Amino acid sequence: MLNRVDDNIFEVPMGHQKGMRVPGRIFISDKLLAQVEPGTIDQVANVATLPGIVKYSMAMPDAHLGYGFPIGGVAAFREDGGVISPGGVGFDINCGVRMLRTDLFAKDAAPMISSLVDDLFHDVPSGVGAKGRLRVSEHELDEAFTRGAAWAVEAGYGVPEDLEHCEENGFMEGGKPDQVSLKARKRGRPQLGTLGSGNHFLEIQKVDRIFDEGIARRFGLSEGQITVMIHCGSRGAGHQICTDHLQVLSRAVRKYGIELPDKQLACAPLGTPEADNYFGAMAAAANYAWANRQIISAWTREVFERHFADAKLDLVYDVAHNVAKVEEHSVDGTMERLVVHRKGATRAFGPGRREIPEAYRDLGQPVIIPGSMGTPSYVLCGGEGAMRLTFGSACHGAGRIMSRTQAKKIYGGSEVKEALSRRGIKVMATHPKMLAEEAPEVYKPSDEVVEVVDQLDIARKVARVVPLGVSKG
Q: Helix-strand-coil percent breakdown of the chain, rounded to 5?
């Protein structure tokens, strides 16, 4: 039973699950709530039982079932008495999105879209287990784990200005390569510069609507402009890091006497060796992901430059989806250091926060919300509502309403490709079943999800972009 708090805010009461320390809060519309599985609400309640949780266990409007935490889940924990949980970060650590703006416009680029997509599909490897064009040394891999996009830029993949427009400037301090297993290293070493599979993509888009002219101008966006969106994460390295440390933290639960309603919430008290080692490994995976997106950006620029000699692709912003960070937030009027878990959720800091690039600081953080394949994506700007309501967090995408298994029973890959082609969208994928799994119909409508955070002033709508060509795993 949920209690309505306000338009687009529902509360999971303390009695929903034995041991809840705080209520749950779900930021969602009535229409979207009807599509949420009951198990997702149970997961919100389960997270509320974790030690040291502050204010609420939260879920964004794109919430759906995940491992331990719901996807779209947000939870903050006090450093003293709180915990860190891999389930609150996810297996694809720092799965994230970056947007590049070009100086091209759709009317000029239209004849080249098909060729651009073909070349991007060829030059940026994708798919399950895909191996990249790079062959990095063990030292270079360590550099990626510790310095992220900064290492990639120094290695020639981009320009210093890119780092200014990345969340955390493209790397988290505290990455510990010594906490990355040999198996994780073996999986990650050949995959730098690859997209992966599932909902990851490399998409050519055009800006088809501006909602806030002033902010759009500051972000460098205008109607009809060509943009590129890159959605990927830490690949096999991140998955293996999560798997390895889940085993350690499952033992830590027993060691420290933590009672859990779901073993998938395995965690360790902050300040313990198990928690510190997981955080260091997670930061290493997050840095790997930023390096990965930086390398893909460089190859994307090369493709565009082959087709348009003077093409410029500047980074608007790069956001992380699956990560835990130490941040300062106001709790009942007092600033506190908290460990904020965002799983399938995006940081959305409002104006004035020092973590926001100076170019945008007076506006709020850019928030990039990808649509599903064939549907619009959005650029938003973090609002004051996020700082009041969600520890500076917003949704991260549309959110699935159908499993991949179900999708493949209903949709055929070739039919999905043909339907998109009829709408003028060129799609390349490694296998037709991937297109079936990612058919637009298996996701919530992105416009309805974004409308919720806009109305709550969590993140304000700035621009909408629509796909012209998509490369997928």
A: 40, 25, 35
